Amino acid sequence: MKRREATAALIAGAMIVLGVLVAFAIQLSANQTRSTNDIKSRVHERSVLVGALIDSLFQTSARSSITVATHRYGTRTVADRLLNQAVNRNRYLVLLDASGAVLAHSRGFNSQADADLASSAALRLLRTGKPWALGNVLPYPNGGVINYGITVPTRYGTRYLLTGFSPSTLGPFLYGTLRQIPGVKGAHNFVLDNNGEVLASTYPARPTGYIFHTPTQLTVLHHS
After folding, report:
1. Per-residue b/e over 91-105, b at no fewer than 16 CB within 10 Å?
2. Can you give the pTM of this predicted structure?
3. pLDDT of 159 higher than 80
4. What pLDDT, in 10s, does the model give residues 1-12?
5. Start-to-end C-alpha separation, the chain
6. DSSP state, 137?
7. Are strands 157-165 and 132-138 parallel, antiparallel or unpaired?
8. Which H or E element spans position 102?
């Protein structure tokens, strides 16, 4: 629990994981009585449950973060120093208006981070009306960056606050949850982004940062 709390603080508030994929390599022995369909059904149920668990871990804190951000960044103009004070050990913070224009940003928001906004899944989800969103791994020095965004309602219009943090931050935070998924011998659990990059894993051979890339893997990952 202490490890979870420390990691949550490191990423400046709670985040919401939008999707969880649990991939299992199941070895069935000849004398197994449980059918393949039964195992697949159980795996699906557990995947849904762990997804709901991770979602619930972040949801309450996400609401709190929105309240704090509305108070802190709801003035007509917002100084960069306010975001510098709040960035902590994240890669950067950036505040955008409804059109996506940058209103203020912290240190670390460089030209690469600015260019990433055009392909930010988190920003795209926020613009559809989501109160919070977690994006894919984006290019950034030293291992990439993930955008966690919240919608900030203000009297001057809707704003979006994006926190850029290292992908490796999520691994320890989610690892404990993944370990709690019951399974069979040979089962491995992963949390992936939409491009197949591992964010958390219980399989040392496929750690955080590994990208599932073969045609078969990609077909499975993008199949409901």
Report:
1. bbbbbbeeeeeebbb
2. 0.75
3. yes
4. 444 444 444 443
5. 32
6. E
7. unpaired
8. strand 102-105
